[in-house]
Amino acid sequence: MSPTADAHRDRGTLAPATWTVPPLAATALSVGYRRRRRRRDTVVLAEQDLALPRGALTVLLGPNGSGKTTLLRTLVGMQPALAGTVALEGEPLERFSARERARRIAVVLTDPVDAGLLRVVDLVALGRHPRTRWDGRLTAQDHHVVAWALDAVGVGHLAHRPVPELSDGERQRVLIARALAQEPTVLLLDEPVAYVDVARRVDLLGLLRDLAHECGLSVLVTTHDVDLALRATDHVWLLMPDDEDGPARLRAGAPEDLALEGAVGAAFGTQTTTFDLTAGGFRTTSPPLARVRLHGTGAGAAWTERALRREGLDLADPGAPAAATVTVSEQPRRHWRLDAVEWSSDHDSLASLTATLRRLVPHLLTGAASPEDAQHHGLPQR
Amino acid sequence: MVPCSSRAALLLAVLGVVLLLSACTDADEADTADDPDDPAADPDDDPDPDDDGPDLDANLTDECVEDAEPGDDLFPEQASFEHATTVDLSYEGTYKVLEVTPPGAEEATPLVLLQCGAPEPELEGELADAPIVEVPVERAVTATTTNLPHFDLLDAVDALAGIGRADFVTTDAVREAAEAGDLVEVAGPDDEPELETVVDAEPDVLVVDGFGPEILDDAERFRDAGVPVALNADFAEQDLLGRAEWIKVTGALLNAEAAATEAFDDIAAEVESLRAEVAEVAEDDRPTVLLNEPFEGTWFAPAGDSYQAQAIADAGGDYAFADTDGTESLELDLETVLDEAGDADVWLQAGSVQGTYDDLVGVDERLAELQAFQDEDVWAFDRGMSPGGGLPVFEEAYTRADLYLADLVSILQPEVLPDHERRFYGPVGADR
Amino acid sequence: MTLADAGLRPRGARRSLPPPASEPPAERARAPGHARVVVALIGLGALIAVGALASLALGSVRIPLAEVAAVLTGGEASREAWSTIVMDVRLPRTITAALAGAGLGVAGLGLQTLFRNPLAEPFVLGISAGASLGVAVVVLAVGTVGSTTLVAGLSALGSMGVASAAALGAGLVTALVLAVSRRVSSPATLLIIGLMVGYAVNALVTLLLQAGLGELSRVRAYIQWGFGSFDGTTWSQLQVLVPLVLVGLAVTWALTKALNALLLGDRYAASMGLAVRRTRTAIIGTSAVLAGAITAFCGPIAFIGIATPHLARGLLRTSDHRVLVPATALGGAVVGLGAGLVAGLPGSEQTLPLNAVTSLLGAPIVIMVLLRLRRSGQAVAA
């Protein structure tokens, strides 16, 4: 290693030559728990190759209990790998001392933190630990970084408040700031959005994504929130649990690719739900009660479709038979018209439309006299 | 069956009355013949030669009496106490009453010493409940060691049946008896006499030190098991002669009052003689005296009215804390001792005759600041220690007040006793 | 608050994190409590001076102040006994009280932080029990110290013998606990193991006490030792005690950075580069040396170890060890001097057991401090 590269490495900035090396990678990595003596080890993930994309937000997505935390701990070095190697900046993880590792990797964990009487700025300043000298003295540069970190996560105005007085969301950000204060190249967060409500989740991931893009930070976040992962991230590592209790498999790629390939559905689907590719979400799997033709565009049509699906109805393809037709109009105000055999009605709201449909569907079903009729009306065979 | 004839009935009735009357008359005659309350009655000078009472000119030390009756005076030799304050002895013809007032007790605990062979007396009042010991005692078990010298001096070691712990004993004759297997050891792991072991030894009396709140309860337990308990309280005596006079108590148990009184009188004479000699020494020639070592940071020293303080005064010394009141121990700290006794001339009862001055430094290095230490005028009192840690100064010295005082005088006023060989005290390291 | 409101965009060039310090450094946030810290430390120092003077001037013997001053400044008193008293009795006692208080307090602070437990204190790992066992063996089973029951040769054991036995006992228990701590990762588990060791060792002491009932003077000697006292140390003993305590204080001061890192818990500390196992060994070892040495010479002294850190936190309202370590040391010295003064009952020849005084006076004070902390809304610091 050249001295220049070392210097850059120590400061956390990246020399161009190292751009091609992933900041964190694994080769033939097996992850799990070693058991004593003759009991078999529990293998959570087997012989996996991984490469964390640089300067991007990657989400490690998997159902509960699939081994996300175990993999994260092994990547950081908190837990030994069962087999294979983890490489940090291309070098095996074991070659780094704890301090050197801490200057490159920072974590935000789910551990509860009781900071006692510490103020926000003091807690964030703890992140300078791997860069200060033996007595922990903070230089001007240290203070500069701390201030930057506070600003970066938006808690600068809370700097002098005692940590116990903060809300959960503020505390979460303070912990992220602390990690940032380590000036890492890799930032790993374990379930950071678990107890955060939906709107803030998007904010948080957006923040992390911005940090990744703006500062070249390689961020890895674990979560089981599929929707969030698909919307708000650059890359996904999808943990697909094995059907027979064996180790999981990991698929990496862009979220949309994984969705379209059906991997998301396979990873998270259960026997009664499927991943709806079009809608981009999960719904219960059952054959539709009837097919309905939908006319309309924009948000009105999109939400009408959701309401129809909720009622167990499916959309009819153009030209295919349908049991009823729903037309959404935006002028003068949004309203719906329902046309079915021997029935027509107008509705001001989806509530009344779906209520009507609910009453209508059994009638439509029993009204079908013959299989040909059923098919003509787009109804399922009895 | 009712007799048919009235004359037979009358005859029977007369016979019965005559029999009754003759019995009563006998009793009356016995009473009036030998009345101890009668000032004219002189036991040695019985005017009625047909009287049943035994004619004794000495206490029976080896045998029981025969044909004694209540009211007979069986104890021509009697002892009385002039110096001891915790004990009292009174004579009631066939029995004696020993009253011991242990420290802290409000009332005396009576003990009835009944001449063996004599009929059981009718006891009233507080004596009704008192335990009865048959004297002379032939099998005594003693849990205390201060009365062992009594048995030795009275030549009655064979009256001992048991002791507390043999390795604690310093009286030679008793130790030999123990080694010969003649004595039972009755002390349990907590140094208290064990009930079963004592009962098994079938003693006539058990002597125990009378202190502690449970002592009377313990005595009851032994008594219920058939062993009467005599309390010892010589340790509560503050006067030298008071302690020594307790030999008369053992004498009373052995019916050996004469020998006991004689032994005591010799001791008392010697003590008085020494006191008189020392009294002539001028005030200025009395060395100041400090007593004892500190114990875990606290210095326990006797108060001014205590036995040791008086002994020091009798021996011609000026005890540093002589002007304190009471008989208990003072609890002093090092500061106070340094201040008030730091320059004492003589330091007694510190260190060991088998030890060194360095040992004292080991206890607390500031003891080297004491004047007596620097002058090497420190005297230990553990001479003659037994294998188990018993000390003659706590055994023989109680009775041999003369020897004890002589030791002290030879230290404090050497010109009075220049050639005395000390038995209890010795300079630190003298016997290494 | 949205990110935009916070003016999020981190300053600095792309791919460099954070910006180099060519920008004017962010204002060094002056802690609002900074003045408080300075005042508090100076105040504690003043209290130590007052306490030390009182300890030198007061005692069971009345010595005029002028004489005390004369002796201390190298002169002679009008009575030699007074010189001896001031120099050989009161001065060692004062030094012992101050150092013992400081040492016990700091030992307690280290353990409370290590175990994240406000109830931790130097004796919780069985250290005091070990020292008691050593003393019990020497006093009850072997021989007595300083008593008039003279067992030839054994009186040579003296006060140094008791101190050595206590130190040995404490050391053995500490070694046992350290050996266990290598195999146990959870601090809570280690704490419980230490408690169990303490119980077992105390049971052994009880057995020895029962066996020693045959010679009540020995039991009395042991109980007397258990009262605790600052009076027993002489200059030659101080030659051992002073360096040990000073080294213990210095090592704890050097561990300040590590202690602060541990505030967030073992995992975060490790992720910041702290060698947690080594630090744990160092903290336990240092606390054991401090508590063991002090117990060896002064007997087991309750309360100071557990309470002084809380007092310091309450007074200075911080969990930062850079402030807490000196504050606890100074505060401990004040408590030690104060307790020694009260226990000595100046003017009277009687003394109170030191242990009773520390707890009786100290407990209400700590309760008050904690209640006040609660009222101001801040949590009990751990």
What this model shows, in words?
The complex is a heterotrimer of chains A (382), B (432) and C (382). Chain A has 13 helices and 17 strands. Chain A has helices spanning 3-11, 68-76, 98-102, 120-125, 140-153, 168-181, 198-215, 226-232, 255-260, 263-268, 298-310, 350-367, 371-376; strands at 24-33, 42-51, 57-61, 83-88, 91-92, 105-108, 186-190, 218-223, 235-240, 249-253, 273-276, 281-284, 290-295, 313-315, 324-329, 335-340, 343-347. In chain A, strand 16 and strand 17 form a beta hairpin. The longest helix of chain A is centred in the middle third of the chain and has 18 residues, at 198-215. The termini of chain A are far apart. Chain B has 432 residues and is α/β, with parallel strands linked by helices. In chain B, a hairpin with a 3-residue loop joins strand 1 (87-91) and strand 2 (95-100). The longest helix of chain C has 35 residues, at 80-114. Chain C is globular. The two termini of chain C are 32 Å apart. The model of chain C is unreliable at 1-17, 19-30 and 144-156 (pLDDT under 50). Classes of the chains: A alpha/beta (382), B alpha/beta (432), C mainly alpha (382). Chains in contact: A-C, B-C. The interface between B and C is large, with 41 and 46 residues.
